[in-house]
Amino acid sequence: GFDLVDIEELRLEYSVEEFDNLFLCQFVDDSQSSFPLSLIHPCMVDSWEVWKDFMPYALKPFGDGEVWIGYDPAESEDGDTASCVVVAPPQGPRGKFRILEKHQWRGKDFEAQDAEIRKLYRKYRVTEIAIDKRGVGAAVFQLVKKWFPLVRGIDYSPGIKGQMVLKAKNVFANRRIEFDAGWKDLAAALLSIHPKLTKGQQQITYVARRSAETGHGDLAWALLHAIFCEPMDATDGAGVQKSKVEINR
What is the DSSP letter of 59? Predict the structure, then answer.
């Protein structure tokens, strides 16, 4: 008798595996995943209870707190999905990341994607933005660079993807990250990432099970972009320098 959602629309919005996991109680097989559930689950919290300094419905939800933005652009402008996460970085070498917001935008061109990122920039004190520069991402990167010159552009390669995955796995393994336990879509996106040999069978790269409708795994890649802003050796405190950057909005 529950008629507040359209089941067929949900089937179009999610991949088969993600739909079964989220709505049919059929758990995803994470045996080949780089981020198995045993790694992710300890980092899922009740954010309303744990994060006392974050007020999601306020004009400035995190006050003057520093945040980083990770962005995975739509691969095309024809109904593809772009994904974005807002992450509070660790305060100190052993501090924790906190994922404050996540967004997925469908059917937006590169100018509209830039506008959505700028809205978040006005809402938070943003000190890092990391964007995949491939395809439409190259245009988004150029627009963001005009008003945030320090934006990081990520050029994907098997080596870079491997570093991003290793960094994120280290962060999760040491429980240096938290996100809301209700965000099943983010957990499913992380579960979808797994190693695969390149076409030449010479290198290992990382891919995600994808659907034509959503580009499955994009939320996870957006998160990995943000985490990758932290140096690989940040937890030992060596060479970590903190600085503030003020950019006129």
Answer: S
| Residue 13, token pair as written in the block | 């919005």
Residue 48 neighbours by CB under 8 Å, 6+ apart: none
Contact (CB, 8 A) for 235 and 90: no
Q: Which helix (H) or strand (E) holds 214?
A: none
Task: Check: CB of residue 74 under 8 Å from CB of residue 113.
Answer: yes
Contact 218, 189 (CB under 8 A): yes
Mean pLDDT of the chain: 85
Helix (H) or strand (E) holding 100: strand 97-106
Locus of tokens 């000190």: 127
Q: Using CA atoms, how far apart are residues 82 and 114, in angstroms rounded to an integer? A: 11
Yes or no: say if 82 and 108 are a contact pair by the CB < 8 Å rule: yes
Q: What are phi and psi of 178, to 5 degrees?
A: -140, 145
188: tokens are 């499913």
pTM assigned to the model: 0.81
pLDDT of 42 reads 96
Encode burial over 77-110: b for 16+ CB neighbours within 10 A, e otherwise. Answer: beebbbbbbbbbbbeeeeebbbbbbbbbbeebeb
Judged on CB neighbours under 10 Å (0-12, 13-18, 19+), 140 is buried
> Across-strand partners of 196?
205
Q: Which residues contact 33 (CB under 8 A, 6 or more apart)?
A: 190, 191, 192, 193, 194
